[in-house]
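sanity check this fold:
=====
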Amino acid sequence: MAIVYRRPPDVVQHFSQELLHDGAACKITLLVLEADDPPLPVGGAVVPSGGAILWFMFPGKSYEVGAVYDADAAFLGYYTNFVQPPRPETAVWHLTDLFLDVWQAPDGPPRLLDEDELTEAAERGWLGAEDVARTRAEAAAVLRAARADRWPPAVVLRNPLEAVPSLRFRRDTPGTFFANLVVGRLIAFGIYALGAISITSVAFSAFTDALQPGAGLTAGRAAWFGLIGVELLVLLVLALAGKLPATRRPRPEEAVTERLLFFGTMVSGAAVMLYPDSQLWKGALTGLYATLAVFLSIFAVSRAVFDRRFPVLAVTGLAVCVVALLVLLL
């Protein structure tokens, strides 16, 4: 993504940054300083060669936020830069600097920078009185929010430098990304659900007789069923919303692919067709094929919606799952 950065009265700089996310409310770009680039002063830090800045740009807003890292990927701070609301033109993003900045180092209070430069710009007529007044008011509001631990925006906090591979994954193969997102969250839900059921059952066994064999549907057993049902519902909502550990973002190096699920389905399907009467296959593969059917359905919908093409492998694999389940259950 091409960036044209103007600083009144006549300084113009050109940057080329990798566009990681092109959303209507926020664009995320990555600037990496090459080995032959000079160090770049940003806020209260200097980004060395090999360092990086994740820029979060907000269409229609008069600020951008940079998450600054050194050459070892160590976090240096957040830099809020006030600009005239950018007007994108094709692949070029035009920014006009309004001088004021807010710097948030990880080990110190937030600071307002370059007030003297804004004053000079106002005195020399480089900026209009309306721009100057608005910038001062917005910078004061951001500084108050930063002091109250309410700045930067949530999208910045959710996407540190280590999220770059996931952002590229989402940009390049959105269908596979979102399928992995949902599948990963369902798997995490299953793991958390097993833990919740186990802990709840141990507690009921230790302190009540609700789980004794032959007890029937007693009040204690009804309470056990009810509590587990509430736990599963809460865990499912939290997992699908990405609020549980290991449910936040898929990583491309660990991604499940439509092709992998398809070939796994075909290989195990051969066993069902060869030995359809085996109780071992029925017991082991019914659950497997039901799970594969769910995962392939998610891939089929995700690829069709986000990639806008017919998901041949997912649909074929899903058909094999349905046939295999019919053979096993009928």
